[in-house]
Amino acid sequence: MTETDTGTTTGTTTRSAPANPAAALAPRLTGSVVADPDAMLAYRHDQSMLTAAGTPAAVVRASSVDDVVATLEFAYEHAIPVVPRGAGTGLAGGANALDGAIVLSLERMNRIVSIDVAARTATVEPGVINADLAAAAAEHGLWYVPDPGSRAISTIGGNLATNAGGMCCAKYGVTLDHVATIDAVLADGRRIHVGSETRKNVAGLNLAQLLVGSEGTLAVVVGATMRLRSAPGTASTVVAAFGTTAEAIDAVGTIVARTTPRAVEFLDRTTVRAVEEMTRMGLDTEAAGLLLVQCDGRDASGEAADVVAACASAREVYATDDPEEGEQFMAARYAALPALERLGSTLLDDLAVPVPALPAMLREIEAIALRTGVTIGCFGHAADGNLHPTVVFDAADDEQTARARAAFDAMVDACLALGGTITGEHGVGVLKRPYLCRQVGETERELMAGIKRVFDPRGILNPGRGF
Amino acid sequence: MTETDTGTTTGTTTRSAPANPAAALAPRLTGSVVADPDAMLAYRHDQSMLTAAGTPAAVVRASSVDDVVATLEFAYEHAIPVVPRGAGTGLAGGANALDGAIVLSLERMNRIVSIDVAARTATVEPGVINADLAAAAAEHGLWYVPDPGSRAISTIGGNLATNAGGMCCAKYGVTLDHVATIDAVLADGRRIHVGSETRKNVAGLNLAQLLVGSEGTLAVVVGATMRLRSAPGTASTVVAAFGTTAEAIDAVGTIVARTTPRAVEFLDRTTVRAVEEMTRMGLDTEAAGLLLVQCDGRDASGEAADVVAACASAREVYATDDPEEGEQFMAARYAALPALERLGSTLLDDLAVPVPALPAMLREIEAIALRTGVTIGCFGHAADGNLHPTVVFDAADDEQTARARAAFDAMVDACLALGGTITGEHGVGVLKRPYLCRQVGETERELMAGIKRVFDPRGILNPGRGF
């Protein structure tokens, strides 16, 4: 479909972009428009490394759905690219600015509209911080489950855009699994409401699930009703240190076959040493692999005992029913990335393989680190097969940067060869675009492009990102 | 998009349909083609009531993916509608034949290709019966969870087409939640592979979830890899009889807030009496509502005790940890529809409302039965708010049929007014098409139609069904 076709269909035609979009937009908005180059710098990049970012024409800080509609109507009319943006905590460059684009920031739309205790749902604006929603739910004895590593700083809108995961996915699923309905605005400014308050719904195509993980390429999310659960009670925690990574991953297979922990986290030796260096918490720095496992539910303690039994090959294993002590252990996992960041610049990957392929994937990562001469610290959500191997390098050194990139490429290759995915929970963004065509076939990409044209016929929404 | 556009895009043009599609197709297939009018009768209808069905031009009984490809290439070339069909157990007319169409039966593609115990997945052809997959998984100590009422006779392909639910959805989700990957054939004969073996995957748009519940309108499913769980251990069962439906539903609210049962089933008085009449199992026929609750997991017995406590307002409550006795109680639920069918023709509905709206929905159903003078037996999956109110009438009597239809319409009205969905797990098919535009907005339907054109530009796949 060409732009001319579209213009004909919708009865509008593309006008050339005004010289000053910010000035043209400002009177239409209750929120503010930023056009000062220095002030716009904060909206150029997300938290990814080695991803390109352009200079936007304007940054709209929307304060209402009407602001989003007005911005998109304007952008659609003038065919100006729009980059939707939450808190900018993304790790794949999906919210990086594009030259001449309007960055549409949703961070000011941060109201928790309502919590329905009987229905166990929360209705929120897209800029609500994940941890704020979790805290508000907890006040009602309810639990917002998805817990990406960024939960203290990332927004629900951003979590929806990337279908964010986290630690509790092992038992409770990813963001997708906690969505009831989504309100969004199409590229041309029309509003849509998709999904259902009911847990079961097959009335029409599943547009809600299609929007989740679409990285701002199909529509701009302006609200969502998310499902809550009853608080899970006290968790029991198991820490197990293994002499070899193979033993650690063997134990993961046994754990998931016999029990259903809410989190099964893995840290390799490089990561354990970096964490111990930073925290001095007394981790076993001679271990080749550390597992941190949390069980919840009616028999957390009994389940933890079964986890201990599954870790029979461990050098050392320790279980605790004390929630505070448990969180102290889990802190080792939360510290993984900050600890590796102390060693240099980091290029964080987000690969997932079927669980039985984890040992092979870890062997490949070790071999790649040796071959390319870079340090790779590897940690991640073992029960989901989702690893975050992190290349540590000196970004100021071109030769090291090239080797880091080579290691990164080689890890993606290995992951695809093992039947894995190039991104489990961070999204394609800019960072993974070069690899997508090796995972997703030509016909499937044609379908995705066709769907994109249905939602966004002029291609203004986050062009060149995602699929 | 017009057909001429499409023809140009794909490099093929529409040819007029041959006089005898069966004869033209037969030499291209390893499976068989049925064109005898009597033999084709068995492929005209699914199990729905009051749904129109046409006379097909041919029935293809595919025995391989190549047969499906050949059939679709032929149908696409000649713009002949194709109605994909599993076991024909649908309840909304989605697999009813259309005049002049090719019915594409997948029931002979019924091989369980493999079960991967380590990855806990099963790869199947679409014609595999749900219960056969469950039995094959059980041989490995694994569990295929989705358990629609039709599980003994319905296929995985059909379950995917309608995103079939069942009883265990309360805890474990619907068919959608158990899909890893889907292999399908597009209208023009091209094959696609969507989804991921990994539990987390955000590489591109979620085409797998889009196919699930699309009722054969986007592509023909020719294979799927479904996720399995470890066997859940012994279930504990609670039966509670209530003096009023309000008390029963109040108890449901308490149960789902405090516990996570795998099934919470409700039967109203009409249904209980019909079941007792048929089975003589000793149910309390004076009760206004019966709850059947099953708990599994590490502390099934303790959880069942909490369920009993939540049923404090019951006339009578009984719990058992004996699995055989538990299944005897659950048999009352399985008997609901057969028991009502003994009273006359039945028009089975499939409405879902948010759980807090269940009492209002049940009151509406009672009022509608009184007002229209028909019998309505109501049962369903209470924890999901998913009810199957079943109108009992004499289909040979036009006046009664009209009243049955009026009651059916009024129930859909009430459901929509309460924020519900017109179909929780049976699909839109033919039966629910008239109501869809009242649940799904115009813009959302435009998007669905646009997506349909992307997958099936000539509109040959199950036209007029679903969204």
Automatic annotation (TrEMBL), chains A, B:
A matching Pfam family: FAD_binding_4
Cited PANTHER family: GLYCOLATE OXIDASE SUBUNIT GLCD
Source organism phylogeny: Bacteria, Bacillati, Actinomycetota, Actinomycetes, Mycobacteriales
Protein name, UniProt field: Putative D-lactate dehydrogenase
Keywords from the UniProt entry: FAD, Flavoprotein, Oxidoreductase
Species of the source: Rhodococcus rhodnii LMG 5362
Family in the record: Belongs to the FAD-binding oxidoreductase/transferase type 4 family.
Domain FAD-binding PCMH-type: 52-231
Tagged with keyword Oxidoreductase: yes
Sequence segments annotated as region (Disordered): 1-23
Molecular function as annotated in GO: FAD binding; oxidoreductase activity
Cofactor: FAD
